[in-house]
Amino acid sequence: MNHLLRLVLGIACSAACVPGWAQTPARNPMPDGSRDMYVGLGAQSAPRYDGTGSRKVRALPVLQVQWSNGIFVSGMSAGMHLSDSPTFEFGPLLAVLPGRDERGSGNGIGSVVETTSFVLVNPIEKQLMLRGQRLGGMDEIDTRLQAGAFANYYLAPDWRLTGSALAGSGRDHDGVRVQLGVQRLAAPVAEHHTLSLAAGLTLVNRKDNATWFGVTQAEAERSRFAYYRPGGGLQDVHVGARWTWAWTPSWMLTSNLQVKRLLGDAAKSPLVERPTNVTVSAAIAYRF
């Protein structure tokens, strides 16, 4: 049962809104040709974008699959374990980074579609409509695929240091993000109940920060925001807690709380209304 609970640490797709929180599942030794899979559905309340005071409730699909050859899919990320060591995990990693529109909404998995009436408007009316949006006048950022690698080191069976480096987050796919963290895996708190804890930080290059927190001259001229050109460095620190209730070997409920604090040039951006954001989610999952 403890092994089962450790596997569900990454099943909630918080990456749908907060990509930096994607977790790589632990290496799971299995018979050749076998796989372990969890699917489910829940809900997530999260900021529309990093640094905003506006929130959005999204549907939260749950997906985690591991194959005996080391390949895994966890939420909006996928990778492969290349090490058989019980204390050191590493391998390639891919992750989908949701985009951002003028409402601040991402367009990744789990988003709730908002309907809009389509009417013909002249350019002046269009500009007035855009200024009414939270990010009116800002360029839309498309969903993009990031690629890189991960590495985890176990200090003890239930404690591990985590790290990942992914490229592709910038406006021209030239942004780089590095996440470093520490996790306490599945601490028993009662029969069938466990609590997991995590803390970490995100480092980015200038291209990443400029994409998500910068304001170009053209955007400044058509929006309510002043021109801003951030540099790279420490973008945020974050902490999280995940409670899991496995009432049968196949069915479980997992709830997640994440707090992120923007720092450095990201926190100084004119786009930021609130540097500290909280994301909460809950989902029911079934193991096949």
The count of DSSP E runs of length 2 or more, i.e. the number of strands, is 12
Spatial strand order of the main sheet: 1-2-3-4-5-6-7-8-9-10-11-12
Number of helices: 5
Q: What is the CATH C-level name?
A: Mainly Beta
What this model shows, in words?
The protein is mainly beta and 288 residues long. It has one domain: monomeric porin ompg (Porin, Beta Barrel). The chain is 12% helix and 45% strand. It contains 5 helices and 12 strands. The protein has a 12-stranded antiparallel β-barrel. The chain is globular. Residues 1-22 and 107-132 have low confidence and may be disordered.
Main attributes of the structure:
globular; Porin; disordered N terminus; 12% helix; mainly beta; 5 helices; single chain; 288 residues
Give the arrangement of secondary structure elements.
Layout lengths: L1 H6 L27 E13 L7 E13 L3 E4 L2 E4 L7 E10 L25 H10 L11 E13 L2 E9 L8 E15 L2 E12 L1 H8 L3 H6 L10 E13 L5 E12 L1 H4 L8 E12 L1
Antiparallel strand pairs: 1-2, 1-12, 2-3, 3-4, 4-5, 5-6, 6-7, 7-8, 8-9, 9-10, 10-11, 11-12
